[in-house]
Amino acid sequence: MNTPAASMASAGLWTLAWRRLLRDRVGMVSLALVCGYLLIVIAAAAGIVAGDWAREAGVNYASPVFVGAGDSAPQAIAAVPAAPAVPSEPGIVDPLAGVLAELRQNLAAAPPEPPRAATLPLGGDKWGRDVLKKAVKGTETSMIVGLVAALLAVAIATVMGAYAGYYGGRIDDFLNWLYSVFTAIPYLLLVLAIAAVLNQKGTLTVILILGLTGWTGIFRLVRAEYIKHRSREYVLAADAVGASDAQRMFVHILPNVSHVVLVQLSLHVVLFIKMEVILSFLGFGVGVDTVSWGSMLNESQAELILGKWWQLAAATVAMAVLVTAFSLFTDALRDALDPRLK
Amino acid sequence: MTPLRLSLAVLIALLLSGCGERVASPSAQAGAAQQKVLRFTFMAAEAGFDPVRVSDYYSGVVIAAIFDPLLTYDYLARPAKIVPNTAVALPEISDGGKTYTLRIKPGIRFSDDPAFKGKPRELTAADYAYAIKRFLDPKNRAQYAFLFEGKIVGLDKLAADAKKSGRFDYDAPVAGLETPDRYTLRIRLNEVDYNFSHVLAFFMVGAVAREAIEAYGNDTNAHPVGSGPYVLKQYVRSSKMVLEKNPNFREMLWNAEVGDDPENRKIAVRMQGKKLPLIERVEISVMDEAQSRWLAFQRRETDLEYQLWELTPKFMSDDGQLKPEFIQQGIRMDRSVDPEIIYLILNTQDKIGNEPNPFGGFTPEKIALRRAIAMAYNVEDQIKVIRKGQAVRAQFPIPPGVAGHEPGYRIGIPYDVRLANALLDKFGYVRGADGYRRQPDGKYLILKYFSQPTERDRQFDELMKRSLDKIGLRLEIQKERFAELNKLADQCRLTMRHSAWIADYPDGDNFMQLLYGPNSGQTNSACYRSAEFDKRYEASRRLPHGAERNHLYREMARQVEADTAWLLTDSRYRNVLVQPYVVGFKKHPVYAHEFLYMDMDPRESKEARP
After folding, report:
1. What is the rounded CA–CA span in Å between residue B607 and residue A23?
2. What residues contact A42, with CB distance under 8 A and at least 6 apart?
3. Which of A123, A329, B22, B514 has its CA 20 to 30 A from that of A133?
4. Cα–Cα distance measured from residue B76 to residue B588, given in angstroms and rounded to the nearest whole number
5. Please, what is the Cα angle at B79 between B73 and B84, to 5 degrees?
6. What's the mean per-residue pLDDT of chain B?
């Protein structure tokens, strides 16, 4: 197919936006970074990388390789004196003594476990888990929370915004009242209160908390767009050909406000990644069997007292790069989608 | 705790954190300069101040300041030495050790309280008899009932009758608990009990006034009325307690066995012969997080701090000394290993509530499951990582410094993950597709661990989870507040929990009773019932401290290991930080209301500035 033929047809909104985005070098670099993170998330979710993040690969607080074992080298762990199970009191019978003796003999033949490393690529945490793997696995948690919560918030906000903007009147009043109630409560307090009510740690809980509290800003924008669009000619035309209210709202108007929604979506991904970190830092986030950047930062509080800075550094850098890249990408996306900047 | 209550607690906590600012306002500090006010914190909330209704350390500190036991301990003598308190002298022991006669100093008055209708109320021997009877009133469900159960002639009969009739008859005569005159108490024991003086010196066995107890009914936890050095002036549950000098307090002069210790001499020079209490007001706030407690101490908003284990590297060098910058500020540190044990309880009951307990019972496969958990739990990491090295491994149920401790004893449950795995394989706990083991009959196996919603306990959760993951056991963590956990413990509803027990009195019996079958639902929160153990425990109670009793204690310790009802973990160092203007502090091995024997210099002018 030759290119002139393609350019004959008038390019659509999305094609034009994509072309504009391609010209934005910063936008493309940040897109590449975000895609890189997404690949990590997929790989981590599939268990290809960092599947064994919870394993104690190194000694407690293993140093990063570039620091060297140095003074954080393990204090030799004094072996618990090899006492036979419940010995020395002839009057007491251990029902497991025979079994344990036999099992011990079998185990004596088995090869010993490999020793734990003194250094790890980016160091180890208090249990000796690999900080690099934790950061990678934390990417999965943080990105999934950010993306899914943002999708949830956007979905809620778009539907509610559409109804409020399109119908106006009582529905609009009611939804605006709801919006006002939500925004009247200080955000962090609201989040903590809901976290306390749900009283269950976990990724899903965090997603729900963020999704259910984070829709307000998007709702306001979508509602304004719908108010603007509902009396446009194309909508009236759709009415004339017999399109239902729902069709007009979601088939005709939605594509025309979707650029607003999309930009808000990516802004909220960033916001929610940061919120998850705050929630986990405050102890309301993910449970003990999950790692996220927030829980890493939380752990590093206690580690800093001991001068172990690597976990803090790893989580901070991983988060800062993603958040910066995502924000720059969002900027580029907004520019690309803005028809006035053609 | 219900979610709603928790969210309310969050809101209240947020509101109170605002109030905290006000407490530290200049006017409050100016007031503090005139009055001697000691401020410190609790890391967990108190349960209340009725001695028969609570059992936690924090409530005990306040109770010890309000109520007056017959006997007490010398402030400085080590090992702890019993001295008379409201009694004129140590008990006269007759009848071969079965009868204790005590005479009470006349003229001691209870603190004024509306329950006394404006009349002064003198402390009498009958108040002690009443206080002791209350421990066995089934209505009170006293955790410390074990102190008197089976010991006093005729008292158990009364308790048994009360269980039947639903009403404890406090007026019925008890042969073993007589008051021949107003100031004499005669206690007759069923059998010789070498620890009974310790029981009478225990701060939970202070005198209470019957009128006050009856006047406050179910609310006695909030209205303690005693004859001790302090009265409860202000009380905000789980948040703030203010004690003030009891104006009716009897004449008590500072007097302690100084010995050769130069530190003791320094204290004695300042304190000897002074009328107690010298500190007029004690303010206690509840602060869950170590970081907050540390900041409060550094800002001199607290005068004593003794619960900073996880922050120890901030103020202590590796060799156990206070860092120079704090020495320069005049801060002092008192460091000792607490007479305590921390242990992981593994509930041995067949059922918990109505649910079957996955590792309850004494069949080999259940013991194997408990043993595997005990072998997989990494105590080394608990000490090194969670305690930051501020603890020593506990080997024996009786800690060092307590009569009956066995220094050469080594725990018989080694840390051995591979052996634990092999043991579970052997007994048919097969791993399912998810990597977690099933019960031998193929049913799901989920174990429950209880802890508090604090940063410190999150680390225990992690360690527990990591340890059990290594042997393929699925763990569920249930979060409850301290008081709630104690309530669940009373009902034998805790499956696994880290518990701590600190000596009420410095004798091994106080620790071994934690495993005595009939104490289930009181202090035996593993609800461990072993005929072998109980038989030996009962025999040990009839013996004085010595080789014969120690032998029984060793056997009992081995029996607990064989049944694996506990895994002993550690005993913590107690690093008490003291501000420079606090005078006369020395950590006492048994009680925690040292402030009765202390004084304070004026705070430096810098502190009083606005």
Report:
1. 63
2. none
3. A329
4. 7
5. 20
6. 90
Cα dihedral sign, A23-A26-A30-A32: positive
Cβ atoms within 10 Å of A57's Cβ, excluding its own: 21
Contact call for residues B61 and B593 (beta carbons, < 8 A): yes
The residue ranking higher by pLDDT, B4 or A146, is A146
Helix H, strand E, coil C: the string for B229-255 is CEEEEEEECCCEEEEEECCCCCCCECC
Inspect the interface and report whether the beta carbons of B462 and A127 lie closer than 8 Å. yes
Residue B528 neighbours by CB under 8 Å, 6+ apart = B348, B515, B517, B520, B560, B563, B565, B566
pLDDT at site A277:
82
A52, A59, A93, A96, best to mutate vs chain B, most B CBs in 10 Å:
A96
Q: What is the pTM of this model?
A: 0.77
Disruptive mutation site among A52, A60, A89 for chain B (greatest number of B CBs within 10 Å):
A89
Instruction: Please report the DSSP string for B52-104 in residue order.
Output: TT---HHHHHHHHHH---SEEE-SS-SS--EEESSBSSSPEEEGGGTEEEEEB
Neighboring chain B residues of A56 at a CB cutoff of 8 Å:
466
A–B: how many Cβ contacts below 8 A?
117
User: Does residue B84 contact residue B90 with C-beta atoms inside 8 Å?
Assistant: yes
Least confident of A98-102, A338-342, B21-25, B331-335: B21-25
Q: Please state the rounded mean pLDDT for residues B558-582.
A: 94
| Best mutation target, B10, B315, B417, to test chain A (most A CBs within 10 A) | B10
pLDDT, residue A71, reads: 52
Binary contact (B418, A113; C-beta < 8 A):
yes
B chain contacts of residue A196, beta-carbon cutoff 8 Å: 3, 6-7, 9-10
Nearest to A95 among B465, B555, B562 (CB): B562
Q: What is the pLDDT of residue B604?
A: 66
Q: What share of chain A is helix, strand, coil (3-state, %, to 5)?
A: 70, 5, 30
Amino acid in the structure at residue B268: A
What is the spatial distance between Cα A272 and Cα A293, in angstroms, rounded to a whole number? Answer: 12
Q: How many alpha carbons lie under 13 Å from residue A210 in its C-beta half-sphere?
A: 33
**Which SS3 state, helix, strand or coil, does residue B473 take?**
coil
Taking CB atoms and an 8 Å cutoff, what residues of chain A touch B426? 99, 103
pLDDT score for B16: 46
The ipTM is 0.74
SS3 assignment for B162-175: HHHHCCCCCCCCCC
- Residues, chain B, total? 610
Distance from CA of B11 to the nearest CA of A (A): 8
Q: Distance (Å) from the C-alpha of residue B520 to the closest C-alpha of chain A? A: 22
Torsion of CA A300, A303, A305, A310, to 10 degrees: -80
Task: Give the strand pairing for B446-451 and B355-356.
Answer: unpaired
Percent of residues in chain B assigned helix, strand, coil, to nearest 5: 40, 20, 40
CA B324 to chain A, closest CA, distance in angstroms equals: 17
